[in-house]
C-alpha cells in the first residue's frame, strides 16, 4: 500500500467539467478561463468527480456526476468573473460556492460534487462499509 501507509484511511477526489465530449480541466491562465466560461455559457455541462477511499483492508473507486446549467453570459459577465481571479485552480474555470454561483441557472444532482467533494457518494460508501456508524442502518 503506497498511499496512506499505516492505519488511517486516505480519501482522494478530483473533479473536472465535460461538455460535448470535451474536458474542461483547470485553466492555465485568464484567457483559457474566459474561453471555458464562454463555451459553458447558456449550456448544461457535466461535473464529474472521481473518488477513491483507500484503507489497509479495501479500496473503493467510484465517480459522481452533476449537471450544471449556466445562464447566458455577456462579455461583461465574463470579464468581471475572470478579473475576480476566482477561476484559478478550478475545474471549468469557476467556483460555484463563490462568485461563480452568479453564473449558474440550475444544478441537477449533488451540489457538493460541484464544490469538489461528492458528499452524497462518500456518505453512501461509508454507510455501506460501516452500517450503524454512518447512515441509518
Structure write-up:
By secondary structure, the protein is α+β, with helices and mostly antiparallel strands. It has one domain (10-128): Alpha-Beta Complex (Maf protein), CATH 3.90.950.10. The protein has 4 helices and 5 strands. It has helices at 30-40, 75-84, 111-115, 119-129, and strands spanning 10-19, 22-24, 44-54, 59-70, 104-108. The protein has a 5-stranded antiparallel β-sheet. Strand 1 (10-19) and strand 2 form a beta hairpin. Helix 1 (30-40) packs across helix 2. The longest helix is centred in the first third of the chain and has 11 residues, at 30-40. It is elongated, with a radius of gyration of 17 Å. The two termini are 30 Å apart.
Amino acid at each position: 500500500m503506497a498511499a496512506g501507509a499505516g492505519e488511517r484511511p486516505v480519501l482522494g477526489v478530483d473533479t473536472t467539467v465535460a461538455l460535448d465530449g470535451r474536458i474542461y480541466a483547470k485553466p492555465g491562465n485568464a484567457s483559457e478561463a474566459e474561453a471555458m466560461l464562454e463555451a459553458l455559457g447558456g449550456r448544461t455541462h457535466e461535473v464529474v468527480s472521481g473518488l477513491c477511499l483507500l484503507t489497509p483492508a479495501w479500496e473503493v473507486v467510484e465517480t459522481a456526476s452533476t449537471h450544471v446549467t449556466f445562464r447566458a453570459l455577456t462579455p461583461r459577465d465574463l470579464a468581471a468573473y475572470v478579473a475576480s481571479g476566482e477561476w484559478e485552480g478550478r475545474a471549468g474555470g469557476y467556483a460555484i460556492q463563490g462568485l461563480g454561483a452568479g453564473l449558474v441557472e440550475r444544478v441537477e444532482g449533488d451540489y457538493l460534487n460541484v464544490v469538489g467533494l461528492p458528499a452524497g457518494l462518500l456518505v453512501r460508501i461509508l454507510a455501506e462499509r460501516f452500517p450503524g456508524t454512518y447512515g441509518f442502518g
